[in-house]
Amino acid sequence: MCISKLEKQINYKFKNIALLEEALTHSSFKKIKKKNYERLEFLGDRVLGLVLSEYVFYTFPEAKEGVLDNYFQKFANQENLYNYAKKINLPAFIKTQKGDNLEYNKSILSDAVEAIIGAIYIDTGLNNCKNFIINNIIDKDSIYSKPLKHPKSILQEYCLDQYKSLPIYSILN
């Protein structure tokens, strides 16, 4: 599929198209020896975290740290990024090893969205990246709806309420 269609979908035109191509290339893709998206995903994850943190900080000026974290997790989680990837038809653009349907993998698609964020950051800097995240990743219609709590947070709150102590975790396997 033509990569310019993806640029239209995300409403961003790359100055360096090679960055977008790298952001769309999974490590399993061996057809051509090219870089894969892992480094851009690493960077994009951090930029996404910064932008979302600042956004919820200013959107909810009276909120305590725990509430801010819940709003942050609402948009930084794999499910939200995966849903955005489906919305822009990202599987049609991902380059993976054929036959394994990796281009439909939730983890790969959410990682690729983070890689696109990293690519935008490298391409034109934080301001354009911030605009992309605010206009594409944050669902403005649901920002004020109550965020879902992480299951671990629910368990810890229950334990504190019922037993006045936090649970003790151990790794079984």
Short précis:
With about 170 residues, this protein is mostly helical. The chain has eight helices and no strands.
Report on this model:
- The structure is a single chain.
- With 173 residues, the protein is an all-alpha fold.
- It has helices spanning 3-10, 17-23, 38-59, 65-76, 78-87, 106-124, 126-137, 151-163.
- Helices cover 60% and strands 0% of the residues.
- Helix 3 packs across helix 4 and helix 3 (38-59) crosses helix 6.
- The longest helix is centred in the first third of the chain and has 22 residues, at 38-59.
| Strand percent estimate | under 5%
Q: Stretches where pLDDT falls below 50 for ≥5 residues? A: none
Rounded to the nearest angstrom, the radius of gyration is 18 Å
The helix count comes to 8
| Global geometry | globular
The total count of strands amounts to: 0
How is the main sheet built? Answer: none
Residue-averaged pLDDT, rounded?
Answer: 88
Derived from helix and strand composition plus strand pairing, the structural class reads mainly alpha
Key features?
173 residues; 8 helices; 0% strand
Write the layout of secondary structure elements.
Elements: H1 3-10, H2 17-23, H3 38-59, H4 65-76, H5 78-87, H6 106-124, H7 126-137, H8 151-163
Helix pairs in contact: 2-6, 3-4, 3-6, 3-7, 5-6, 6-7
